[in-house]
Design brief:
single chain; mainly alpha; DUF2384 domain-containing protein; 139 residues; Xre/MbcA/ParS-like_toxin-bd; 0% strand
C-alpha cells in the first residue's frame, strides 16, 4: 500500500476489496475482526455472506478499509522519514494506530479518527491531523 501507485490502488478498489483484507488488518493490529468490520461499516452477516460467496466487501466498506490502510501507510512513511531506525524496530505502529484510531480528538470535534473514515471529507480531516503530527503540533 505504501509504495503502490495511485492507479493500482484505484484498480484494486474498483475490483472490490476482498474480505481477507479485514482479517489481515485484524491480525496486524491485534484488533478483533468485528472491530475492523465496524470501522468499515459492514455487519457480521454481510461479511460472512460475502466471504462464503467469495465476493468483495460492499463498495462503501471497501473505501473505508482503503482509507484505514492509507492512514496506516502515511504513518509508516512519516516514521520512516523522521524516526530513528533502531527505535522503529521495536515500535508496534499497527498496535499504536489501532488504539489511536479510537481516541476522541479535539481537532476532529471530539470524534475519533475511526468515526471520520465514513466519508472522504472525514478521511481528509484525519490526514490533516497526521500532517500536523508530522510537524510536531499536538494532535
Amino acid at each position: 500500500m505504501r509504495e503502490a501507485p495511485g492507479v493500482q490502488l484505484f484498480d484494486a478498489v474498483e475490483a472490490g476489496v476482498p474480505t481477507d483484507v479485514v482479517k489481515l488488518i485484524a491480525k496486524a493490529t491485534g484488533e478483533p475482526a468485528s472491530v475492523i468490520m465496524g470501522l468499515a461499516g459492514v455487519s457480521q452477516t454481510t461479511f460472512v455472506r460475502n466471504e462464503a460467496a467469495n465476493k468483495p466487501l460492499p463498495d462503501v466498506a471497501g473505501h473505508r478499509i482503503m482509507a484505514y490502510l492509507r492512514l496506516l501507510a502515511t504513518l509508516h512513511r512519516m516514521l520512516d522519514e523522521s524516526g530513528d531506525p533502531e527505535q522503529m524496530k521495536s515500535f508496534d505502529l499497527e498496535g499504536w494506530f489501532a488504539h489511536w484510531v479510537h481516541e476522541s480528538l479535539p481537532e476532529l470535534g471530539d470524534k475519533t479518527p475511526a468515526d471520520m473514515l465514513r466519508n472522504p471529507e472525514g478521511q481528509r480531516a484525519v490526514e490533516q491531523v497526521l500532517e500536523r503530527m508530522r510537524g510536531g503540533l499536538a494532535a
